[in-house]
Amino acid sequence: MPAEVIIPLQQHIGAPCNPLVKVEERVLVGQKIGDSDSYVSAPVHSSVSGRVVAIEPRLIHTGDKVLSIVIASDEKQEVAPSHGLSDEEAMDSDKVRAVIRTAGLVGLGGAAFPTHVKLTPPKDKPISDVIINGCECEPYIAGDHRNMLENPEAIVDGLKIILRILGAKKGYIAIETNKIDAIRHINDLISSEENIKVVPLTAKYPQGAEKQLIQAVLCKEVPSGCIPCEVEALVQNVGTTIAISEAIRKGKPLIERVLSIAGDGVREPKNLRVKIGTPASHLIEECGGLKGNPGKIIFGGPMTGFALFDLNTPIVKGTSGIVILPKEMVPVSDPRACIRCGKCVQVCPIYIMPNFIGQYIEVGMIDNAEEASVMDCIECGLCGYVCPAQRPLIQLIRHAKAKITDNRRKGGK
Amino acid sequence: MDSQLIVSAPPHIKSGETIGKLMGWTFLALLPVVLLDIYLFGGCAIRIISLSMIAAIATETLILRYRHMPITVIDGSAALTGLILALTLPPNVPYWIPLVGGFLAVFFGKQLFGGLGYNIFNPALVGRAMLFVSWPEIMSSSWFAPLRELDAITTATPLAALSQVRAGTLVADLSVVYKPLLFLNRGGCLGEVSALMLILGGLVLIVRKVTDWRISVSFIGTVIFLSFLARTNILLNILGGGLLLGAFFLASDPVTSPITRSGRVVFGIGCGSVVMLIRLYSGYPEGVMFAILFMNAFVSLIDKYTKPRKYGLVKAE
What we know:
The complex is a heterodimer of chains A (413) and B (317). Chain A has helices at residues 93-102, 115-118, 143-150, 152-166, 180-189, 210-218, 238-250, 280-286, 343-347, 354-362, 366-371, 382-386, 393-409; strands spanning 4-8, 18-19, 26-27, 32-35, 44-45, 50-59, 65-73, 129-133, 170-176, 196-201, 233-237, 256-262, 270-275, 294-299, 306-307, 321-326. Chain A is α/β, with parallel strands linked by helices and 413 residues long. In chain A, strands 13-12-16-14-15 form a five-stranded mixed beta sheet, sandwiched between helices. Chain A has a four-stranded antiparallel beta sheet with strand order 1-7-6-3, with no helix packed on it. In chain A, helix 4 (152-166) packs across helix 7 and helix 10 (354-362) packs across helix 13. Chain B is built from 15 helices and no strands. The interface between A and B is large, with 67 and 48 residues.
């Protein structure tokens, strides 16, 4: 139990929330403390009971300062009265979406896109296939595996709710074959379900990336620049699916999540159920503290995560893990010219050519990079991982993407 | 303590592959050939190899200093250029040939284009080609019998012998020519002494993914296929001359070969075809060097037309 939680008012893609409480006010567990009138947004709730001590900009993992509500816990964990629940079967689809929004659900895989928006596909694009993503998003991260072992009923239940409100035909639960226990477990549960099936997939990175997962499960490619509804598919992370079930069945808002604390720089790596807003330092202590000389502390996974510089950074809804690497494991980059070995081209999951894109960007040829499909890049980090010349390909690509987005916004092109 | 944390963009872990390691594996793959050279040719081999490497390293260092660039000779790429150049030289060339060659290779072949990664043509072959056209008599007549007699054979290269046999100027049983090729190919450049060692080295590079098997296999495969079509001696065309050295160590140089998988196959087929064209229809008995240099010029073009199809390019109807 952390003594203090820091709850940023924007933990999702979309509009930030406005605070609903004042400093010194007493709040309860699950009480809504921030919300927005915007459609693309998700409210935030207190994960502890206690007193609001500050409402001020605080540093989050991206390095930005975001208006946050800081709550000192009174350790009583007094729960706010749950809003009246009606029977799920009796709810229509819009009611279910409204409950999901009220619960503050966002995608727990990392992107933190508001779930009620994702579950509202355009009218002319019906969803026929729903895929539950049980492939871990990155190496070191194992929270979804725990979820599948400990809460499989909620996953199946959440999937059924999604299928019902979307009117979708088939549900797939995609699990990598290195989690054979989870595959067996869930297969037993769904033996009587006709339209739900477990799809075992090769364990590889980035198997859990949305577009790659659709390719692996449905053998379809999402057209460039489009979202999955274009191929009548929808992907939800297992953690989100559990949260959907809990929000509908128990009226539980999103105030905690499962995450992995991993890496060689922590004494006892663990998967924990954690209150949103807990500072990273508290979780590291829970895991026996740091081991050796810490080099990098990463929010998210080692391939795409954010390196922290402040240990008081709070866990947010989208934090899938904390990876702690000791100093000697942090690679020192010494970038050289591309030697055209082609390794980046061979590993690229969307089949673009990071080598040429990197070279274009280096000399400011942003238009050429755009032509070479830099905007399609999913930033999985594999090109930078394999590059023997240690080229900072992801930095270059992000730089170009920001420039191109900027140009487009200005209507320059 | 917080201030000591490292902050940088992802990915936060790396495969550990470096340019230096790739070069290291290439040296290791060439080691058996070098040791055999020293065994067979003694001081001559040591002299040629060391002078060529010294010239290449010295040239690289001086030019990098002149260009105010970080001195990166430690990555071993210049040394490797020197070594490979030495392996394409006959064993009895005068001492100044490897010196001049090492300089030409790094200066004209590599640094003039901007250094490692930017050169269009294989540097070692640029050096050799310049030596070859400047001092043709030295480059084509400096063969000599190794110190250790292992088999009785003429000192001409096997491919020259093949030309002579086909022209009727040399009457011999061909088995005498190619029998020792697999193990000890005595007449030839330093790098051509043993087909077996070259294949071994080539396999090391392919297994370690330093080079792409697509280039080596399509190159050699094309030579086999065209030799078969032309009804000439297949085994001699593979084992004789510089084909194996070229296919495993020169054509497969990543910097001067295409980057796409299919492009690499096209490149290998191109190299093989040009080799056979030169061997069958030109005045030269050997064509590996010119074939690779010729195909190097097409690399950008091949890359351009063999781009992989990106994910999601098919538009929804």
